[in-house]
Structures are given as structure tokens and as C-alpha cells.
Design goal:
This protein is of the alpha+beta class and about 450 residues long. About 65% of the residues lie in helices and about 10% in strands. It contains 10 helices and 6 strands, in the order H-E-H-H-E-E-H-H-E-H-H-H-E-E-H-H. The strands form 2 sheets. A 4-stranded antiparallel beta sheet has the order 2-3-5-6, with no helix packed on it. It has a two-stranded parallel ribbon with strand order 1-4. Strand 5 and strand 6 form a beta hairpin. Helix 8 runs antiparallel to helix 9.
């Protein structure tokens, strides 16, 4: 009896619209919109971008690092001498210019770090969005199952009162309904958790009535997209997340080595390494400039009491120059050279890691893209057709109830597999974005 009731339940479910084909409505949020909102609102990312203001202040400090003039006075009452003048230190080695170069290079390092944060945020939003989308779809399925189970229970209770079925059959239906309710509540919990996770990343409340559009099911990555600049600005208003329809060179035509070359140009770790080497070059140049002593000039006037007890005007000029005998900036220069050698070794290690990540990410993307397309073009339509054919065969009395039951079980398994592949595929896209250092 329980198998028959379950069969009736799933046969009714077959007549409902399929959950994998929803029309987009004005209340839907797309993945690209979610990523753009996160780049504009996420507090952690905005905190990283705000460091640019700190860097600008450091650059301003470097630009204003020229020594201020000093007022000096030399008064000797016993000798009846009173003087006042001004002194100015002149940077002969170009210290100020070198400090500006160091601050500018450090600012470029910071921009590379912000780019890393942006890529990480994009990956997090993509994962949270996909999780919420699949939780949203599962919730709809369990909600339909619960409604159908409640309908069957109402029918069973009426038939039990009429004496058509036994009480034990009603209890079996009630157990079926309670199981469906447990599954629905679990799906509701997962939906709430997934929604909260995405809300946190977007830093704004997500309306409970809003739904998510399906993530891009067939992402085409183009050579011109890969050759473009990486995420260079803190917030890009043109980040649509979709390729230009006019682009014709699909990623499938690219070799892994082409992606690796793109990664060498776009990966923020490589960019940061390059800029850090530039910082060490500028720091060494600053140390060399500081070896050249600064010249301090002074001039002033005063009055002196002469031997005839008459006050006469007095003028003077002074100059001082440090002798670079002991401190010749050997330590900072050696430190800069050692740091540059370390960065070069780190660069080689980064390139090895990039080679591995690009190959793995490209393989995962290609394989899961093929799996997803197979589900959409073959598996899901075939499973759907099998359910319809089996139902018709059962209604015509040409097969037992087990035939449509098995067909429906195959469809449910296929549907769950499809949702799982969506998550894996979107994760592969995130890994590929991180591997090449550019948004796709």
C-alpha cells in the first residue's frame, strides 16, 4: 500500500512544471548583479580599498619630506654680540625624489593586494550564490512534495472513515507526510543558512521573496576576455559578468600555455612580486642617495659692540657638510639586494604553482562544462521523457506500478545530480578565475 501511495505522489509530481526551467522575472537576482553588489558594498573589500587612502597619505608625506628651514640665534652678552639668522638643509642626493619613488612602488603593491581580495570576493559570492540557488530549488521540490503528501493524507482519512481502507493504511500515509515535512524543514533551514551567507557577502538584506536566476549554464570564455586587463580598479561598474556576443574565439581553442601566459600577466601574486622588487630597487636607490651628505647653509645678521663701545652691524654665512666616513648605508643596501634575490626565488615558485593551478582548473572547467551540457541537452530531457512514457504505459495497463516508480526515481536522481554538477561547475569557474587572475 505504501508503494502505491508513493507512486501516486510521484505521478502527481510529474504533472507539475519542472523546477529546472524557470522564466526570469523582475524579482530575480543574477549572479553578475550579486558580484557587482558585493564589490560595491562588502565591508571587507571596502576596507581593503580604503587602504589606498592611507597609501595616498604616505605618498603625500614623501612629497613633503623636504627639510624645513630653521631660525637660529647666537647671543653672547659678555662679548656684546647678538645674531639671528636662518639655516636650510639642501638634499644633494635627491632623497625626496627617491622617497616618492618608494611610496609609489608600495602603492602599486597595495593595488595588487586589492586585486587578490577582489578575486577572492568574486569566488565567495559565486559559491554562496550557487549554494542559495540550489537550496532554493530543493526547497521548492520539498514544498510541493509536502503539499501533495498532505492532500493524500486528507483523501486517505476520508476513505478510512468511509470504510474503504484500513487504519494502518492511513498511518502509512501519515508517516509519509511526516517524512516529507522533515525534508521540507531541513530544506528551509538550508535555504535560510544559504541566504544569510549571501546577505553577509552583499552587506544588504536580501528580500525573502526574491529568487535567484540560474547561474550561467554555458559560460564561454574568450581569448579577448583573457587578454584584457585584470581587475585593476577597486570597483568596476562595467563588470557585467557576461562575454561580448561579438567575440568569436572561444576558450576551447586556447591551449593551456596561452592561459599560463595570461596568468603570468594577470595573477595578482605575480604583479605583487614584481612591484615588491620595484620597491627594493627604489629602497636601494634611496640608500645610495642617502650616502651623499646633505649640505646645510646658514646666513644671518646682528650687531657687535666694538672697542670704541659703538654698535656696529655684523653679518655671517655658515656651511656644514657631513663626512660619510662610518655610516655609508651598507646595511639598507645589502638588505634590499637580499630581499630582491628572495623575491626572484619566490617568483619562480609562483610560476610553478601557476602552471599546476591553470592545468588543474582548466581540466576541471572543461570536464564539468561537458557534464553540465550533457545534463541539459540529454540526461534531463531523457529522464523527463521516460517519466511521461512510463506513466502513459501504466495508464494503458501495459506495465506495473513499478515501471513509473523506477522512472521517477531515475528522474529524481538525475535532477539531484544536475544540481550537484551546477555547484561543482561554478566552483571550477571560480578556480579558473583565480588561476588566471582575471574575471571571466
Amino acid at each position: 500500500m505504501k508503494k502505491i501511495l508513493f507512486s501516486l505522489l510521484i505521478l502527481i509530481l510529474c504533472s507539475l512544471p519542472k523546477v529546472y526551467a524557470y522564466a526570469q522575472s523582475p524579482s530575480e537576482l543574477t549572479l553578475s548583479e550579486a558580484i557587482q553588489t558585493a564589490l560595491q558594498n562588502n565591508p571587507s573589500y571596502q576596507a581593503a580599498v580604503a587602504q589606498l587612502e592611507v597609501s595616498e597619505a604616505q605618498l603625500l608625506s614623501a612629497k613633503s619630506s623636504y627639510p624645513n628651514p630653521s631660525i637660529v640665534t647666537d647671543n653672547a652678552p659678555p662679548e656684546k654680540t647678538y645674531r639671528i639668522g636662518i639655516e636650510q638643509t639642501i638634499l644633494l642626493g635627491g632623497d625626496r625624489r627617491k622617497r616618492i619613488a618608494v611610496a609609489t612602488a608600495q602603492q602599486d603593491v597595495l593595488r595588487a593586494e586589492i586585486q587578490t581580495t577582489a578575486l577572492q570576493l568574486r569566488a565567495s559570492v559565486r559559491q554562496a550564490y550557487t549554494r542559495l540557488y540550489t537550496a532554493q530549488e530543493c526547497y521548492k521540490v520539498y514544498e510541493q512534495l509536502l503539499a501533495l503528501a498532505q492532500t493524500l493524507l486528507n483523501v486517505a482519512e476520508k476513505r478510512e472513515k468511509a470504510g474503504d481502507i484500513a487504519l494502518v493504511d492511513v498511518l502509512q500515509v501519515r508517516l509519509l507526510m511526516l517524512d516529507a515535512k522533515n525534508d521540507w524543514q531541513a530544506a528551509q533551514y538550508d535555504l535560510t543558512q544559504a541566504r544569510n551567507e549571501l546577505n553577509t557577502l552583499l552587506n544588504q538584506p536580501l528580500d525573502n521573496t526574491i529568487t535567484l536566476a540560474p547561474p550561467t549554464s554555458s559560460l564561454h570564455i574568450h581569448e579577448s576576455t583573457l587578454a584584457s586587463s585584470p581587475i585593476s580598479s577597486p570597483v568596476s561598474s562595467s563588470d557585467a559578468g557576461q562575454p561580448d556576443a561579438k567575440q568569436t574565439h572561444a576558450m576551447e581553442t586556447l591551449e593551456p600555455q596561452q592561459l599560463i601566459e595570461q596568468a603570468y600577466a594577470h595573477r595578482p601574486e605575480i604583479i605583487k612580486n614584481t612591484q615588491q622588487k620595484e620597491v627594493t630597487l627604489q629602497e636601494e636607490a634611496l640608500a645610495r642617495a642617502q650616502r651623499i651628505p646633505d649640505l646645510t647653509l646658514g646666513a644671518g645678521s646682528g650687531r657687535v659692540l666694538n672697542s670704541q663701545n659703538n654698535w656696529v652691524p655684523d653679518y655671517y654665512v655658515t656651511a656644514s657638510l657631513e663626512i660619510p666616513l662610518f655610516n655609508r648605508q651598507q646595511g639598507p643596501m645589502a638588505q634590499a639586494r637580499a630581499r630582491r634575490d628572495q623575491l626572484e626565488k619566490e617568483r619562480l615558485a609562483l610560476k610553478n604553482q601557476i602552471n599546476l593551478e591553470v592545468h588543474n582548473a582548466l581540466n576541471a572547467y572543461t570536464q564539468n562544462k561537458e557534464r553540465l551540457e550533457r545534463y541539459e541537452s540529454d540526461l534531463l530531457p531523457t529522464a523527463d521523457l521516460l517519466v511521461k512514457k512510463s506513466q502513459r504505459t501504466f495508464e494503458e495497463g501495459k506495465a506495473s506500478i513499478l515501471f513509473p516508480v523506477n522512472a521517477q526515481q531515475s528522474y529524481v536522481k538525475t535532477r539531484l545530480g544536475y544540481l550537484q554538477v551546477i555547484q561543482v561547475y561554478q566552483q571550477a569557474i571560480s578556480d579558473l578565475e583565480r588561476a588566471i587572475g582575471s574575471k571571466l
